[in-house]
Structure formats: structure tokens, C-alpha cells
Amino acid sequence: MKFDITSTEKITHSSDIIILAIDDKNNLINGNGINEVDESLVKKSLKKDVLGNSEGDTNILNDSTGSRQYLLVRVSDLKSVNIKRLGKIFNKTFTHLSKLSFKTVQMCLCKFAGTEVAVEEVVKLYVRASLHNFYKINAVKSKKATQAVVKNIIHLNSKYLKEAKQGLKLGQAIGEGSNLTKDLGNLPPNYCTPTYLGSVAKKIAKDNKMKVKVLGKAEINKLKMGSFLSVARGSREEPKFIVLEHMKGNKSQKPIVLVGKGITFDAGGISLKPGLNMDEMKWDMGGAATVLGVMHTVGKLNLPLNIVALVPSCENLPDGLAVKPGDVVTSMSGQTIEILNTDAEGRLILCDALTYAERYKPDAVIDVATLTGACVIALGHEASAVYSNIDSLASELINAGEKANDRAWHMPLWDEYQPLLDSNFADMANIGGRAAGSITAACFLSRFATKYNWAHLDIAGTAWISGGKAKGSTGRPVNLLSEFLLSRLKSK
Length: 492
Ligand code: BES
Ligand code: MN
Ligand code: ZN
Known about the structure:
Layout: E1 2-6, E2 17-22, H1 39-47, E3 58-62, E4 69-74, H2 83-98, E5 104-108, H3 119-133, E6 151-155, H4 161-186, H5 194-208, E7 211-215, H6 217-222, H7 226-232, E8 240-247, E9 256-260, E10 262-266, H8 286-301, E11 306-316, E12 328-330, E13 336-338, H9 346-357, E14 364-369, H10 373-379, E15 384-388, H11 391-403, E16 408-410, E17 428-429, H12 437-446, E18 454-458, E19 464-465, E20 472-473, H13 478-490
Parallel strand pairs: 1-6, 2-4, 2-5, 5-6, 9-11, 9-14, 10-11, 13-17, 14-18, 15-16
Antiparallel strand pairs: 3-4, 7-8, 8-11, 12-13, 15-18, 19-20
Helix pairs in contact: 2-3, 3-4, 4-8, 5-8, 7-9, 8-13, 9-12, 11-13
Bound molecules: ligand BES, manganese (II) ion and zinc ion (ZN).
Ligand BES is lined by residues 266, 284, 341, 343-346, 370-374, 376, 431, 437, 460.
Binding site for Mn(2+) 1: 266, 343, 345
GO molecular function, one term: metalloaminopeptidase activity
Domain Cytosol aminopeptidase: 341-348
């Protein structure tokens, strides 16, 4: 999809669809000056209740000439519109449009300037919503769905052009990053292997002049990542440890390290999962996909920050060589772990990556993981869980999530939960029992993140939609993390 921002308030390009915002008194919000719009036709039809009264309700109206259509969208009170409402309005608009077939769409956003939301944000939300809703799952279909919209034109008063262009740039980079994350998640697990994730990291590095290393089994062994390797033992796919470095900040600036769980299929190992919906465990690399999506965004924007992505990646399968309940393994940190349940494998691969992260003397380390079913029970599919050893970092992430319409919620990481991980035989067990399952998983990780500021995002409930027509990756929390990095940039 190509985007264009034009300074004229008049829509003069020939277009298939013009988006018209309608207020709660049935007035045309962005009609003024659009000379192609047949206002009397629109007004006449609105009298016939063609549009629902809830914000974001949409309907298609045919122009009398038959050459053009209007997409009406309800916007209640424009002056008080905020990021959350605007996100919903644009999402509903483009959900509707994604079901139609046409070449050009345009919208005048003039009247959206001067509201509570800055023009840059308005355009960013518009572009993000377009890319998000026009996303198609295509990779392994013999008949590919074609892109419905070729051109998407935004009209704004010329004095807002600079801000608008910046919004477009950000929206495009973030939207593309999030769609890359969806692509990786939606790819079947026989395609999306640890080796494949490594090749994607190499491509991102090449396209954006980043440094990349994809370590294989022998090199991972040399690093003494005994915990990570114990999970990989049950699979014939070679594990990979991906290191992707975007060092475009000041030399003295400490890097932000992003760590993504890259289990490309989680059958549970010897503690085998039940069969129902097991296919969904192909999304257990959602953290890795997020981190790679964010690196794409960061690269496209060439952010002057130092950012490192680490991805431990392997499969978790049952096998004669697989790790067993009762086995004790030694992590890269030297701490020993009694594996009581081989299905709690995410923490086992992440802990070694967290130890590896120490070498960067990082400003902050943020890991992202589809870590626990318990997180889905606690927060459902609305919010990602945030844990941190420093409250200010948790707040930063939560604020970024609010700004990005990609919400997260602060969970407790109190010392009182730590004894649930006590083991008779090793330094710790890899599970803490049924109670507080998402919290004890975070407690486990915290023991490997003692040397720096750290946050953990449990995205088990937010990374994909299970079942039904919408089944698939959501691309979350790329929006949250991109916004977090942009806010870091502003504070520099
Ligand atoms: N990948 C799963 C977590 C998961 C479950 C994500 C359901 C999304 C939906 C993780 O590896 C896992 O299996 N966790 C176990 C931990 C338990 C054995 C302590 C779980 O949540 O059941
Ligand atoms: Mn598991
Ligand atoms: Zn898992």
C-alpha cells in the first residue's frame, strides 16, 4: 500500500472511496472543501438512518455517478477525541474497507488537527490502522490474496504537513514491523524453524546495516548455556542463538537489550501437552517475532539508539534424548535448576539469554515471552503482563502501551513468592505450582536478571487470537515496544 499526504484541502484525485466522518448530529465533519463529495446525497441518506449511532460504526454509500463510494464513519465528539477512541475509529474504518475491493482510498484529516491528539499521532494511528487491517496471511496459500488498496491518500492543511509526514514515517515503520511479527507467527512450524528465524535476523541486519550473529549448537555449548540446551535436546532441529545489534546511538550510551522467547513449537516435551489446540504452540516464538519486528521498525527509522536483540530459539519436543522431569541442569550463570516440568521451557531458554545480556552492561533488558497459560487466566487477551525489578521501568512500558493502544498491566514480583521455587536437590525448581503461575515464572527469570534494570512482558494472552475467523498473530506488543523506544529517544 502506498501512502500519500497532500496539502490541499480539496480532494481532486479521482478516487474509488472517500472516507467521511459523521458527527452524532449527522453533520459531515470532513466534508468542507472536498469538491468531489456530493454533500446533499450524503445528508439525504443520513436522514434515513444509514449509519449506526455508536462511535466507529461504518456504512458504505454509493455515489449517484456510480464511479465512487463513500465510507461513512461515526465520530461522536471530535473535540474530545483521544488516542484510544481514534484508534478504534480508524480500526473499524479499515476493517470495513479491507472487505471491499478498490484501488484508491482517501480521507481529509483537516478537522482532526487541533483536537486533543497531535497531528503526528492522528496520522500515525491512521497509517497503523490501514496496515494492520489490510494485512493478509499469504505465505503458504497456493492462491495469494491480492492487495485491495493500492493508494491511500491523506489530506491535511499545509501548515501541518511536516508533522503529518513524520506521523506517516512512524506509522509505516511500526505497521510494517508489526506485520512482520504477524508473518513470522502465522508461518507453520515446519517453515518457521530456529534456522529460519536466524535467516530473518540476517536479512534485517543486511537491509539496515546492523551486526548479526546466529550461533549454532557448538557455539551455544561453548557459552555453557546448559539450561537452553536441555530444552533443545528433544528436537532434531538445531537450536540457534540470535544476536542482532543496532548500534546507532552514542558510543557512551548504554544499550537497551530486547530478549525474545523463540520456541518455534512447544509440544511440552516429556511433560507432553494435551492434543486439543496444540497447533497454537507454533506461536510460542511470539516473543522472538516481536523482537525481530521491533528491530525492523528501529532499522527503518534508523533510530539513534543502541539496541540489541537476543533470541534463544529451539523446539520443545518429546524424544528419547529429551530432558526428563527430575533432571538437574546447570545454567550459564552457574545456578542449577531442577526441571520438574519440561513444559515450563520458556524460562529455561530465557535465563541463559539474560545471563548473556550482562556483557552489554545494559541500560535496561526487556524480555518478551509467551510464557504462561496462567497469564491468560489472570489478564485474558486485553493486557500483556509487566514485571520489573524497577518500578520506573514498568511505568515507562505501561505508559508506552497506553499511548500505542497496546496495553500492559503491572504485576507483583514480591519476594514472598520466591520460596515457591525452592528445590530439595538444586538451587531452584523450574516451576512453582499452580498458584500465581505467571508470577512465579517471572520470579524464576528475576534470579538471572540481578545485574541490571530488567522488565519481563508475559504476552501469552496478547500475541495471538485463538480459534475462529480471526485466528492468527496480533503483532503485539510491537506497538508498545516501538512507542517505548521512541519515548527513550525523546528523553535523550
Ligand atoms: N508456551 C506455554 C505457555 C502458554 C500456554 C502460552 C497457553 C499461551 C497459551 C509455556 O511454555 C507453558 O507450557 N507453560 C506452562 C507452565 C507450567 C508447566 C508451569 C503452562 O502455562 O501451563
Ligand atoms: Mn511449554
Ligand atoms: Zn512455551
